[in-house]
Amino acid sequence: MIMRARARSQRARRGFTLLEVLLALAILVGSLATIGELTRMGLQNAHRAAASATAQLLCESKLAEITSGITAATSAPPAPLDETGLWQYSVAVEPTADASLLVVRVTVSENLPPQQSPVEFTLVRWMVDPQASADAAAAAEAQAASASGSSTGSSSTSTTGAGS
């Protein structure tokens, strides 16, 4: 009798029970779902990082065009940045307390609906007002011309007086 009970107990323990198999499958499915979600989030964040880097480069490029004088330092509403239309930019130019300086704010953003969380990047730079520097250069030139004109006039008067 004891031998038969042992034989039955050894036969019953040869494989996994249904409960153990179901528990293992539940753990496997939960792990796969978690790994899938983490992969999706990683890809989404990688795309966002790449878009942020692109936006930063495009913003720096547009700001360099403005500060170098290629593009006028004037405010502009959102407009396409390139022919693809994937990116748009806007420029806001504001005066400062110092009349010779301007605050230039360039914003570059993806041209996507708000539901898709478009990437946006803004750079702000203070720059010398081109109009103020042109006015200062003209005033300095006029002052130099009047100074050289008066010194030339006095030396020509002396020369004329000495020659008579």
Question: Helices, strands, pairings?
Answer:
Elements: H1 2-12, H2 18-68, E1 76-80, E2 87-95, E3 101-110, E4 120-128, H3 130-163
Antiparallel strand pairs: 1-2, 2-3, 3-4
What does this structure look like?
This protein is of the alpha+beta class. It has a single domain (17-145), classed as Pantoate--beta-alanine Ligase, Chain: A,domain 2, CATH 3.30.1300.30. 59% of the residues lie in helices and 20% in strands. The chain contains three helices and four strands, in the order H-H-E-E-E-E-H. Strands 1-2-3-4 form a four-stranded antiparallel sheet. Strand 2 (87-95) and strand 3 form a beta hairpin. The termini are far apart. Residues 155-164 have low confidence and may be disordered.
- Please count the helical segments: 3
Anisotropy-based shape: rod-shaped
> Structural class from helices and strands?
alpha+beta
| Spatial extent as radius of gyration | 38 Å
Low-confidence stretches: 155-164
What is the helix content?
55-70%
Strand fraction equals 15-25%
Give the neighbour order of strands across the main sheet: 1-2-3-4
Number of strands: 4
Mean of residue pLDDT values: 85
Report the CATH superfamily.
GSPII I/J protein-like
CATH 2nd-level architecture: 2-Layer Sandwich
CATH class: Alpha Beta
Number of domains: 1
Largest sheet: 4 strands, antiparallel
Measured distance between first and last alpha carbons: 155 Å
Indicate the CATH topology. Pantoate--beta-alanine Ligase, Chain: A,domain 2
Spell out the helices and strands N to C.
HHEEEEH
